[in-house]
Amino acid sequence: MLITRRQLLVGTAAAGGVVLSTGAYAGIVEPGFRLVVTEYRLTPPRWPNDFPLNIAVIADPHASEPYMSPARIERIVETTNALKPDLVVLLGDFEAAHRFVTKMVPSETWAPLWAQCKAPLGVHSILGNHDWWFHLKRIRASIEKAGIPIMENDGVKLTHRGRPFWLLGLGDQIAYIVGRGRYRGVDDLPKTLAKITGDAPAILLAHEPDIFVKVPERISLTLAGHTHGGQVRLLGYSPVVPSRYGNRFAYGHIVENGRHMIVSGGLGCSIAPVRLGVPPEIVMVRLGNQLA
Ligand SMILES: [Fe+2]
Hints:
This protein has 292 residues and is of the alpha/beta class.
């Protein structure tokens, strides 16, 4: 069948329209306006079934104008609080430094906003690679001034419904850039695990998911961010993932040899303000039998 010039032009215009509208969606709508709550319900090994715990996970907000303004952070905090979590965890990468940022949102502004997250077991944080690479001292000081503890190869024993559990936080795995594509971490998994005493269940917070290959069965659940789900994720595949393991740890609930990890797609953007197929998300983890 011969295609007329008119059919060709109409077809080209339609294809161009799809490209343009997809571009507008991926460059403006998804990164700048969408927010979803992604819920996971699970009872991993070593977590008692009759011990329900709800954790809100905030990852990679990358505060900056125009995409992650103070007003947007306030809305995310409101949405988080409406979920009534028992515990809120902040997984790092608090600021953006890519070249599409029109104005920085400093830590003195965003830290008190995240501190407005409300949960009976409090708000706990770890730092990410961007926090190490840019403005580390200021970011650390602001988070601590806002009353949010930062865990670095450390742990805290929390009590919920009269029962203890451990919340551990790992130091960042790529804190120092030592060459092209080469990094040195400040993570110390043995030291972090040594904080555990007794047999209470344990949860590990790690900014990058790559540590998961070394996490022992003693940890019921690892929570990570960093990947942004690749920022572009279609049909369960992310073409670009900042992980040594590619798509293996790009996004979602990963189970390997009976060990569980949830990787959040995060809230913000790095490198470029583009998201497609992985909208900004608050992750809500519901452990144990919720009716117990
Ligand atoms: Fe990161």
